[in-house]
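Extended Data, panel c. Modelled sequence:
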Amino acid sequence: MKSIQNKKNNWTKINKVVLRVDAFDLRLENKMSVFLDCGFENISRGRCGLTVKEKTKDSIDDLFIHTDKALMEVNIFYDLQHLEKLIRFISYKRNSTKKIKVSLLISDSLMVNQSGDLYINDDIKIKINSISWEVPII
């Protein structure tokens, strides 16, 4: 019979981070951006600050994981039309109690155990390959 301790240390690789949007704010400064405060669907602890900004020539979608705090920061860049569409879709969600979900396919895998704990040795920045949004409207 395996001990529970051994089960907790059984690490697997994930290439997808699934976020649950708990709150969002529209920010207008020089350019428009959307800030989303998120929790995780497939990682057990921590928070994620997701920022969607207008795309520039050098912008790259990425996530950054801190080792000194339970925080992940995600930066996503869209052209202005796509950003405006996203804001419109998010505004449809007002009438639903279901949460918006954002799935990020990442270029490098992360390690999690069966309890969903994330293993990070050093601060890490990972490129995001693709993003999908699930916005419930009913």
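The CA atoms of residues 61 and 76 lie 5 Å apart. This feature is highlighted in the accompanying rendering.
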